[in-house]
Amino acid sequence: MKIVKMAEVSRKSAASPLFTGTDVTRQPMELDSKGFNVSVVNFGKGVRNKFHTHDCEQLLIVTSGRGIVATEREKKVVIPGDVVLFSAGEKHWHGATEESEFSHIYVMKIGSKLTQLED
Q1: What is the pLDDT of residues 31-62, one digit of tens each?
Q2: In a 10 Å sphere around its CB, with 0-12 CB exposed, 13-18 middle and 19+ buried, how is residue 20 labelled?
Q3: Theoretical Cys-Cys bridge with 64: which of 28, 32, 54, 103, CB 3.0 to 4.6 Å?
Q4: What residues form DSSP beta bridges with 78?
Q5: 71 lies in which domain range?
Q6: What is the rounded average pLDDT of the residues 25-36?
Q7: Among the listed residues 78, 19, 72, 10, the one whose alpha carbon sits nearest the alpha carbon of residue 48
Q8: How many angstroms separate the CA atoms of 41 and 106, rounded?
Q9: Domain of residue 91, CATH code
Q10: Within a domain: 59
Q11: Half-sphere exposure of 29 (CA within 13 A, CB side)
């Protein structure tokens, strides 16, 4: 068994062309899992990622703030305690509302591929 305390994992900048702003950090949970990649992603107010897909399912567990999760067909506000599952290949984005910062844990298969669909 391995336990990692999120509060003790340093935040590293995750700014990249995938995001609409630079106020985004990632906290990789080093669990030594053979199957799962787990990280906390922290978005500043109004920052989101751009439309993208994954070649596997993606699970998001909302930990703080108010966020938005969206597909081509719907857009929903999420709050701490909400759990979101995106299907493999589903075009989507997620991020903070304009009024709130937002954090979630993501869980995906190790070695999965992300394809950015929006410039």
Answers
A1: 999 999 999 999 999 999 999 999 999 999 99
A2: middle
A3: 103
A4: 67
A5: 29-110
A6: 95
A7: 19
A8: 8
A9: 2.60.120.10
A10: yes
A11: 20
